[in-house]
């Protein structure tokens, strides 16, 4: 299977209003270029250094999405160009992103990551924390970020009923915040959920942005 064919098939299967992030982590720039030539403009990476190296050599109309866990001391490296940060999981991180955005005289778009999975290891706010964070004074002082929505990852399991429950739970939190949070820097438009294995289910549950890697680029080799 070719990258182009995979992309075409996935794109055809996505309903209108669902955005595709091509997750290219660990893949060589040649693979990204093939996807670019096939029309893909949004790429997701989970390491800031790797993303920055790719940003430097690839066409400048690509939108780079940081989908991985972000260390505060590395925000500065992507602040000049990153288009959306999916995994914002603390107010402290949001403050650092705001600071670096200010230095670069821009607004940086963020999604707040909400913990929906059973596993303890996955990062994110819970419902109470995310609501508090968006309504607090610390958040109100941040003027160089925009919270565009939420991101979540379901438990790594074959149990579709459980995955559906988790996605539906996140959609509910999303809708509640959308209807209740009023701030200039919040605009709940994006619900980022769904990967290669579960994106169809995620879309059924209300996802507006899917992050797909291996179904486009093939399995990853970690060294
Ligand atoms: C790697 C990754 C993906 C893509 O995973 P695939 O199963 O290859 O589609 C999606 N989201 C996040 C946060 C990831 O780290």
Overview features:
223 residues; alpha/beta; 8-stranded parallel beta sheet; 10 helices; 8 strands; binds pyridoxal-5'-phosphate
Describe this structure in a few short sentences.
This protein has 223 residues and is α/β, with parallel strands linked by helices. The chain has helices at 3-13, 29-37, 48-57, 75-78, 91-103, 127-135, 137-140, 160-180, 199-204, 214-217; strands at residues 19-23, 42-45, 63-66, 84-88, 108-113, 145-151, 186-192, 209-212.
Q: What do these coordinates show?
A:
- The structure is a single chain.
- With 223 residues, the protein is of the alpha/beta class.
- Strands 7-6-5-4-3-2-1-8 form an 8-stranded parallel beta sheet.
- The protein is built from 10 helices and 8 strands.
- The mean pLDDT is 96.
- The protein has helices spanning 3-13, 29-37, 48-57, 75-78, 91-103, 127-135, 137-140, 160-180, 199-204, 214-217, and strands at 19-23, 42-45, 63-66, 84-88, 108-113, 145-151, 186-192, 209-212.
- It binds pyridoxal-5'-phosphate.
- Residues 23, 25, 46, 67-68, 153, 195-197, 211-215 line the site of pyridoxal-5'-phosphate.
